[in-house]
Each structure stands twice: as C-alpha cells, then as structure tokens.
Amino acid sequence: MKNPIISVIVPVYNVQEYLRQCLDTILNQTFSNIEIICVNDGSTDNSRKILEEYKQKDSRIVIVDKKNGGLSSARNAGMKVARGEFYSFIDSDDWVDYTFIEKLYNNITAYNSDISICAVHQYDETNQKIDDSNPYYTLGYFNESFDNRAFTYQETKPFLMDVCVMAWNKLYRRSLIEQCQAQFPDGLIFEDGPFFFSIFFKTPRVSIVRDFLYYYRINRKNSIIQKAGKKFLNVIDVAELMLSKIKDLEDFEDIKYTFFRKKTEDFIYRFEHLNSKFKKAFVKKLKKDSSLIDDNLFPESMVHGKFRYNYFLFQNLKTGSVIFYEYQKCKLKAMYKLMEILYKEDGVYYLKYKTKIIRLKKRPNIFDIYYYDDKIYVRILKKIKFDFQFKFSKLEKFNEDD
What is the pTM of this model? Predict the structure, then answer.
C-alpha cells in the first residue's frame, strides 16, 4: 500500500469518555491521505475496545498495543511505525477542527517550512467554555511580520520562551525529526519542551497558521496535571533537558535570562499547585538538581536586575523551608501588588487613608511598605515595636497642595 503523506500519532490511555470525539474529528479531516496511529498505552478502561470499533470502520487506523509507559513512551512508539512524510500529534482527550491537517499541510508546503504551528482553543472541562486569553496558545506573541512566510528561531528571541512548545498544534517534517534524532523524554511529564527545542533550533524554516485548529481540553478530572502529584517534580528534570538544548547555541547569552524567567515561573507555579506532601521533596530536588541555582551560569547581579520579583521568590524557594517560602511569597506578592496601589513620585510614597494623605520619603533601610489581605503594612526596620497597619481605601490621584 502506498505510504500516506501524513502520520497522525494519537497516544491513548484511559480516555473512553473523550476518545470518540477525538477520532471522529481526525477521520473526517478534509485532507484524507493520512494514517492514524493509535498507541494504546496499557489502557484499563474501554479505550481499546473503542479503537477496535473504529478500526473496523476505517482501515487508516493502526493500533499499537504496549505496556503503560506514559505519554512520551507512547508518542515515541508511534513514531517508530509511522510511514508518513510528515508527523502530527493529537492527544486523545482533545479534538481538532476538520481542516486541521489540510491547513497545516498547505502552510508547510507553501513556505517549504519544517514546522507549521496553528493557534489553539483552550476548552475548560469545568465550565465547558473556550478561553482564548492566553497568547501562548493563540500565537499572540507573533506579530504580523511573521505571517505568510517562513522564519527562524533567531527571529523569535524576544519571546523565545513564550513560543508554544506543545507537541500537538504542529505539523513536522519527518526528515527533520530523524535528522535531529528527536525523542520525547521517557518517563517524564512536561515532555514537550525538550522535544520541541531539540528540533526548533535546528530548522531554518518555521511558519504559522493563525486559524484556531486545535481544541486543548483543560481541567480534566483524573488527569496527571489535575492530580498535581509527585510527577510535578519532573518540571525540574525537563528544565535541565531544555537548558542542555540551548547551552551550545551561539546566542545563549542573549536568551539565557529569558529562560531563567520562564523556568522560575514554571517552578513557582508547579510548586504552588503541588500536593502539599511533596513540597519538601520538590525543594530538596531543586537544590540538588537544578542549574538555575548556579550563580556562575545565572549571575545574581544580572538576574536580580532583570527579573527582580522572580528572583526573590525563587531565592526563597531554593534556600528556605516550605513554610518560610509561603510566608515570603505573601510578602513579596504584596510588595509587587503595592506598585499598583501607591501613587509614586521619585523618592516619595503617597498613601491615602480615609480622607488623609500620607507622604513618606523612600528610605529602604529605615522602613518597608507592603500590601497583603487588603491592608497596607508599614514596617519600621530600625525599631520593630513601631510596626503599624491601616485598612486600604481607594487611592486617587491628587495634587500635593490638596
């Protein structure tokens, strides 16, 4: 049988509630010269029966059975048997627009690119609404100058770490993946970043499709992300793998601080959503395995200046206990929020309390001001006994003579 042009790889594990919707949207694509490789990753529900049911209806479906090994393992298994000139990955709890393959294929061939990327709808399972507010998924970081042409990763350096790394909103040229010997990291979650960067930095040609062609289901019950268990510690391992992909780039010095910003955001976000019984293990692993704490690689003088808020939170996470971090997070978040509340001039804070205006000179070695739980706190650093607080009321712009 003639090889299909495109291999669609679908990892399947206990998704009986969503699998039919996913398969229906793939089988009814306007571009039909495809094979659908469904990798049954040891499902224990009715997913395998559903795959067999659909295979009887359409010979383009190929079922690969394997022991449970996780998403990376399933995708890698799918690539081993894929025959197409191009690869696409679709997760079995998501679905796609009926023109998903056709539009990505037309785009990748029109500009002779190696990767074509489309915009993504986030579908919230809890309220059944679509959210298009995140530029990471909507291609919002790409301005109009990226349209209707191919571009290189160097052109994305101002927002490199905000390029969507997810495997599934893309079409890939097979020869590029084979040339880079790209694989998903076995046994890890958050696996998309290392795979994407292993090929993104090697291709001279990438293009985008502005259309929303992929539907990404979020807040799905029983998903690994929802469980927020020990696997969340993988975010540290994945960051190390990603760092290994960019360390050897000629322009590493230009992008390493944006990498620091993005990965510390990821660490802090995952830590805060992590099941509490694994938080101590997270901090321990961070201190042991993360290169982000290497001051030789990420000098404090540079990181502190460019990403002050991230730096302080990350410092507290890597050096303190879990309890200390939670305390400092409240305070630092409060100080960050304060910038939205205070009416500022050079060297002066103005605060409004009821009808009174309080004018304070900025003296960082003498007092500290922060906002938390609807209160502004002024802490006298020289004399702790003079700490006081007052309820915040809306601050309005005013003339100093008022």
Answer: 0.78
